[in-house]
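// run 5 | inverse folding | seed 20
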């Protein structure tokens, strides 16, 4: 396992930046992809957002101060890029957030990269009904199994608020999935 401080030093060193960046991508690409994919739903959109995330990280790594863990900083950038992507798409298509979510779910049904069964599709539909913050908290806790302390660092909010958001999200999803 690589030492995070060592990796940051390499990323911020002009001599080692490119090599260290390749290492960073190999370490975080898959986890960030799935984090983004749960937000934007589409494989192609997730790939685009992931690429934008890594471009932003590459351009801004010298500004990373180490006030949070590196992966928290990466997740925060990925989350913001994914949300920005959703907002741009909604604006471009002249849709509100709810309509954009609905479109994303409909597109998920025809996405050749979506390997879920009917129950996963229903779960995604249920998640799409949640407010943005509850969606983020639920996805990070349920799919990525992140700790509340990690989510707190990524979303820059208190653990108590996150626990409440997750609990409410779970109740709403259960209600959605059990209604006829």
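// decoded
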């Amino acid at each position: 396992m690589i030492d995070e401080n060592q990796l940051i030093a390499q990323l911020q060193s002009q001599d080692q930046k490119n090599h260290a960046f390749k290492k960073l991508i190999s370490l975080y690409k898959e986890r960030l992809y799935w984090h983004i994919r749960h937000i934007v739903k589409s494989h192609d959109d997730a790939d685009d957002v992931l690429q934008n995330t890594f471009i932003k990280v590459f351009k801004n790594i010298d500004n990373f101060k180490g006030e949070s863990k590196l992966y928290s900083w990466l997740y925060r950038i990925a989350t913001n890029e994914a949300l920005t992507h959703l907002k741009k798409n909604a604006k471009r298509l002249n849709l509100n957030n709810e309509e954009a979510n609905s479109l994303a779910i409909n597109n998920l049904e025809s996405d050749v990269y979506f390997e879920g069964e009917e129950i996963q599709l229903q779960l995604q539909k249920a998640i799409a009904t949640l407010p943005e913050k509850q969606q983020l908290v639920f996805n990070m806790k349920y799919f990525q199994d992140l700790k509340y302390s990690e989510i707190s660092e990524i979303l820059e909010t208190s653990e108590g608020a996150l626990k409440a958001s997750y609990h409410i999200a779970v109740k709403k999803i259960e209600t959605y999935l059990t209604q006829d």
